[in-house]
Design a protein that fits this description.
This protein is mostly helical. The protein contains 2 helices and no strands.
């Protein structure tokens, strides 16, 4: 009779052992997942910072190039270049328009 009484207790303790082991493994997997997600988040944050820096640099370059373009196309500069090269304003009647 004592053998029958001990048998269910052995099964119960085995069940608790497996449940505890399964919970421990699940906790370990979830902990590793949290660490992996945090590492990925940091990598994305660094990449985002690099992209923002590159975007700012390109925007600054675009603004500088736009200023340079406006300077090169300014009417006073073009007039001075035309005078240097012996060009002058066309006289009346010298310009002919072609009809389509």
């Amino acid at each position: 009779m004592s053998a029958n009484v001990n048998a269910p207790r052995k099964n119960q303790s085995t069940g608790w052992y497996w449940a505890t082991s399964l919970l421990g493994i699940c906790g370990l997997v979830l902990g590793l997942a949290v660490v992996w997600v945090n590492i990925e988040r940091l990598d994305l944050a660094y990449e985002l910072k690099q992209l923002q820096t590159e975007l700012e640099r390109k925007n600054d370059l675009q603004a500088k190039l736009e200023v340079e373009r406006m300077n090169l196309l300014s009417s006073s500069r073009l007039r001075a270049l035309a005078e240097e090269n012996g060009l002058r304003q066309a006289e009346p009647g010298r310009i002919r328009l072609l009809s389509p």
